[in-house]
Design goal:
Layout: H1 2-13, E1 34-39, H2 46-61, E2 64-67, H3 77-90, E3 98-103, H4 105-116, E4 123-130, H5 137-144, H6 146-153, H7 156-162, E5 174-180, H8 185-189, H9 191-195, E6 213-217, H10 221-226, H11 228-241, H12 258-261
Parallel strand pairs: 1-2, 1-3, 3-4, 4-5, 5-6
Length: about 260
């Protein structure tokens, strides 16, 4: 049983520490006026890094510089936030006309207080990755695999497990929600533990975050990293228009227990 659990957490979590930061690819034909900061979380690994590096040239052709900082630290959520704050300073974001953020789950928990404190003065849009399933992962990892979780990630997962989401309150930023509708292998493996946290609510208002628009993707959390190119057209549309496309899926899936999906 211990070997099975170790294999499960290794497959689900181990990739996050191996990926490197992504920096812009310069396009001399289109001077960049915008910057996109992607804030990854615990699912970010080599496959995700490769996906963003592959996508960066087309973003540059659209006049958008891509940054993917590796800010998550073992010492906890506060240490990760302090590192991200320093990263934001180092990027010299004042060079850009507009800045945009795509925040994966841990990214939202980390960056929101910084945004409300004015850390990105020219922030125009934020798109949040949200998931009724994956947002239970920190508590599941804490309850079922505490030692392995601490060995791999230190205190940060435990901080996320006990920290409620703090929404951005500033009215000057346009906000979109991109909601995952499939569970990862890790969440399916510990379905009963996740189900004990209560009902799943896929309604847009359930995420307790002001938003201009909200859409759904058939990807799970792991897939969203490696297949980010599939959702990038919608993110780009939101960056340009403040709304996702008219063809985007805005119908929430039926709520069901994870154990019932198996």
């Amino acid at each position: 049983m211990h070997s099975i659990r170790f294999a499960t957490v290794a497959v689900c979590l181990a990739a996050a520490g191996c990926a490197q930061a992504v920096r812009p690819v310069t396009s001399p034909a289109v001077p960049a006026r915008d910057a996109l900061i992607v804030l990854p979380g615990f699912g970010y690994g080599p496959a995700g890094e490769a996906a963003f590096r592959k996508l960066a040239p087309s973003m540059a052709a659209d006049g958008i510089d891509l940054y993917v900082p590796t800010y998550v630290r073992r010492r906890g959520l506060n240490a990760s936030r302090a590192r991200l704050q320093q990263d934001l300073r180092d990027l010299r974001l004042q060079r850009y006309e507009r800045v945009h953020v795509f925040a994966f789950l841990a990214g939202g928990w980390t960056v929101n207080p910084l945004i409300d404190a004015g850390a990105i003065s020219n922030l125009a849009t934020i798109v949040y990755d949200r998931s009724p399933y994956q947002e239970r992962a920190p508590r599941v990892a804490r309850d079922r695999l505490p030692l392995l979780t601490w060995l791999r990630y230190g205190s940060t997962v435990f901080d996320l497990a006990r920290t409620r989401y703090t929404p951005v309150t500033t009215e000057e930023v346009r906000i979109g929600l991109l909601v995952e509708t499939r569970p990862t292998a890790f969440m399916k493996r510990f379905a009963k533990t996740a189900d004990r946290q209560g009902d799943y609510d896929f309604g847009c208002d359930a995420f307790r975050q002001r938003h201009e628009d909200c859409i759904y993707t058939p990807l799970d959390h792991t897939e969203l990293y490696s297949h980010f190119a599939e959702v990038w057209p919608e993110v780009l549309t939101f960056i340009r228009d403040g709304r996702f496309s008219v063809t985007a899926d805005r119908t929430p899936p039926p709520s069901t227990t994870l154990a019932g999906r198996r």
